Amino acid sequence: MSQLHIPIESTTLENGLRVVVSPDRAVPVATVGVYYNIGFRLEPRGRSGFAHLFEHMMFQGSENAGKMMHIKLINSSGGVLNGSTHYDVTNYYESVPSNALERILWLEADRMRALKVDDENLRNQRDVVKEEVRVNVFNQPYGGFPWLDMPPVAFRNWPNAHNFYGDFADLDAATLEDVRQFFHTYYAPSNAVLLMIGDLTPEEGFSLARRHFAAIPAGAPRPSADVSEAPFDGERRGEVEEKFGTLPAMAIGYRAPERRTADWCALAMLDQALHGGRAGRVHRELVLEQQIAVDTGGGIQYPVGDLFDYDGPTLMVSRLFYKPEYSSDQTLAAYDAVLDAVRQHGIQPGELEEVKVKFRSDYFASLEGGHGGYIPRYGLMHYLACFTLFDGDPTLVNSILGGFLDVTPEQVRAAAQKYLDPARRAVVLRQPSKKAVA
Amino acid sequence: MAAPAAPVSAAVPSLAPEHAVVWPPRARQTLANGLEVVLVESHTIPKLTGELYFRSGNSSTALYAPGLPEITSAVLRTGTARQTSRQIEEDLRRMGADLGAHAGADTSTISFSGLTEFTAELLSLVAELAQSASFPQDEFERERRQMLEGLRIERTTPSFLAGERLRKVLFGAHPYAVVSPTEEQVEAYRLPQLVEFYRAHYLPANALLVIVGDFKSPALLREIDRIFGGWIAGEVAPPPNPALPAVHGRRVHLVHRPEAVQSQILLGNRAITRKHPDWMRLSLANSIYGGAFNSRLVMNIREDKGYTYSPRSGVHALRQHGFFSVSAAVRNDVVAATLTETFYEMDRIRSLPVAENELADARNYMSGVFSLGLGTQDGLAGQLSSVYLERLPEDYLETYRERIRSLTADDVLSAARAYFDSANAQIVVVGDREQIGAQAALFGDVDTYDAQGARIP
Predict the structure, then answer these.
(1) According to the model, what pLDDT value does residue A437 have?
(2) Is residue B375 domain-shared with residue B318, that is, in the same domain?
(3) CB B15: neighbour CB atoms within 10 A?
(4) Which residue among B243, B272, B358, B395 has its CA within the 20 to 30 Å range from the CA of B28?
(5) Which of B179, B195, B228 finishes a domain?
(6) What is the pLDDT of residues A82-108, one digit of tens each?
(7) Distance, C-alpha B18 to centroid of its chain
(8) A236-432: what CATH class?
């Protein structure tokens, strides 16, 4: 069961654009994505939030499809579209009835070749992004917790540690010249992968890719950047005021090992044992048994990414919302007892087998998953893109499970001792600024 | 006015001929005890996804114990005659399965998914939860506390406060007015009430089982008959359906949230159920007005004016009634400007027939997006569920695209006039009244509430 057989064909155009096709003719639908190997980690200093603002600008017009035409042409073809900014990639994607495939490729190629935006577009989208930040962060209970709160506490190197949604002053400072520069630096075909999934053949996909993308100039290679982080030299603590929510909360982050190592596979199993739903040890102990916490969650890159979609320093995070009658020290002590147990004893062989079954099941669901139901195979697209851009091999989608299913109980225990060190972690407390309303 | 769209370049590739959209066959059977079963094969991954619905939700008890069905569903998974909470959760993990239990306005649902290699075991667990949940007292008390803490946090969330107020205004004394219990109501729950609700409503004749996944239907039907066939039948009383309040004239309902840095606008009217003959017309009108990225409202207040990130309109079908709503979270100084544009677009679509090209674009959008649901097990399960839960015609999925494509500009105009009732729209704004009160008052008399729902002067 560890080797999958999803059909995957790939090629690279002369300008460096990688093209991946995964045909599935069962239903007349195609999902298309273009992934650029640039996320918020590498946005320019003094321009926090710029990678995300730039993502918005990619919908504001290109040479042959002016403002609003991109969206209109996709919706009126019966399709849906969106984009999102991650740590190390930014994606643009569409799901359409397959008869619109060429139209979508033409649109994606047009904006890769010649984004065409002006100051008015920039002002407009700066306003839209500010409302996005307000609705998701400033005007919500636990807004940005812990995905915006954790990096500045856990990391020291600006690319990993800054505010990814952006300080408003930095958003205001962004200019059209910044937009041109960022596009020129990071949006070259050699820094991207085009994915086509669903109702098409590989030959058709490659031929359409060549027709629409081959003439785009290659551009310069992406500049290299230092995103390294020194190991934690002790526990790091931070505290953030919670203006709305009534419960205290905390997040604990541990540095995760490098992707595609044996330790990484072992930590993934440990993560599932700790954070896998209501059977996971953290939820079971803190919510169901001891009833100190009201809700818990966690994972690698939690809650804005996963095990596969990063390419730099990252954390395994636990998030706890706990009852106000417990102090943060009491809560953290109860959490530490859960982690102490796995550091000392590892997990039971039977527990590891259960965790592997659940991991495999979750992986299948991620591949098929429609991103809320409206983008069939979003997950397959996302992992094909990450394995192409970070590892140079999209077929890892079919073989990656093996490493996880081979993990032994000894490896899990060793990983717990090595990575879940209380002296090398970051803890963020999110404390309500007022008493719970009676 | 929305900014005019740029002209389409001559280079835009035209659409290729469509590939046929073929909906998969359903295997349907009603067991002797009344359980209705719908199965659809979808071999995308070696998993299945299913929903066991009961046609009794929060509206069933809203008039005497709001939220009782919700806590019943939460406690349901915490013990059976045979297993403890911990055994159930570890069993699910062993099968690679997920399970959720929730109550909506009209249904209580046990949702599940898992690997097909454990199909019979997973269905047996679902059947066990549906028939012999044991409702342990200590699990009930734990869930009650979690529900209380959840309610307190909900009251700090702008979208919750807006939705709660709009439902109260539109539905008055009807159960649909209540979206959440108060803390006092939760404190008053007693365990025998949960057991009583469970015994009276979790019955096979009140249930619908929909499963989509990687299986062979005939064999699975036999398995389901074996697993669910012994469930004892019983009759269920329909939920109450009291008269609706008269809603006349625009009125503003301001929920005061001190120092809010953004204002949540939610306005709407009562509308219709999915079974109503106007449903398709109204859906199309909504898609043109504010239901799609490419809609008039989004283009106007987001892409042209930059007032908001995520404006949308929607038509919401409940079983007995429905409602239309428009939502936008906007910066505080453009509350009045946003409402002006929202009503401008509403009055425009009520007054002028939609142009042929805009109509064709919207019909294509709706028929295309509908077919995307074919692509995943979850998508299929969602579409099938609405057909069979609402008892829509058997060929609803097969004929949907055809019916959307036959709609005309007159259909859009008549639906907009009937249901986008701008003169009587109820306007909810959640925000800091010091900053937005004067703007809101431009649109009607203002009633002000605090976050707990109490009227304040």
Answers:
(1) 45
(2) yes
(3) 18
(4) B272
(5) B228
(6) 999 999 999 999 999 999 999 999 999
(7) 31
(8) alpha beta
* Residue B336 token pair: 């009045």
Which residue shows structure tokens 């192409």? Answer: A388
Instruction: Enter the pTM of the model.
Output: 0.96
Q: CA A23 to CA A26: how far, in whole Å?
A: 9
> Of B196, B228, B260, which residue is a domain's last?
B228
Alpha-helical segments (H) within A134-250: 150-154, 158-161, 168-173, 176-186, 202-213
Chain B contact probe: residue of A31, A118, A119, A128 with most B CBs at under 10 A: A128
Q: Which residues of B touch A72 (CB under 8 A)?
A: 5, 294, 361
What one-character DSSP code corresponds to residue B80?
B
Letter string b/e over residues B174-203, b meaning 16 or more CB atoms within 10 A of that residue's CB: bbbbbbbbebebbeebebebbbebbeebbb
Helix (H, G, I), strand (E, B) or coil at A241: strand
CATH classification at residue B386: 3.30.830.10
A215 touches chain B (CB under 8 A): no
Quick one: closest CA in A to B16, which residue? A99
Range of the domain at B417: 251-456
For the question of an ipTM over 0.90, the answer is yes
Cβ contact, residue pair A73, B8, below 8 Å: yes
Residues paired with residue B253 on neighbouring β-strands, in sequence order: B428, B447
- Same domain flag for B352 and B443: yes
Top-tier CATH class for A9-213: alpha beta
Q: In which element (H, E) is residue B441 found?
A: helix B433-441
pLDDT digits (tens, 9 = 90+) for B353-364: 999 999 999 999
The two most distant CA atoms of chain A are separated, in Å, by: 66
Chain B residues closer than 8 Å to A68 by CB: 3, 5-6, 294, 299, 303
Label each residue of A393-438 as H, E or C.
Answer: CCCHHHHCHHHHHCCCHHHHHHHHHHHCCCCCCEEEEEEECCCCCC
Cβ–Cβ of A79/B368 closer than 8 Å? yes
Q: What is the pLDDT of residues B238-283, one digit of tens each?
A: 899 999 999 999 999 999 999 999 999 999 999 999 999 999 999 9
Chain A residues lying within 8 Å of B11, measured CB to CB: 64, 106
Q: Long-range contacts: A296-305, Cβ < 8 Å, 24+? A: A296/A320, A296/A321, A298/A271, A298/A274, A299/A271, A299/A275, A300/A256, A300/A267, A300/A268, A300/A271, A301/A87, A302/A275, A303/A146, A303/A147, A304/A86, A304/A147, A305/A86, A305/A87
Secondary structure (3-state) at A221:
coil
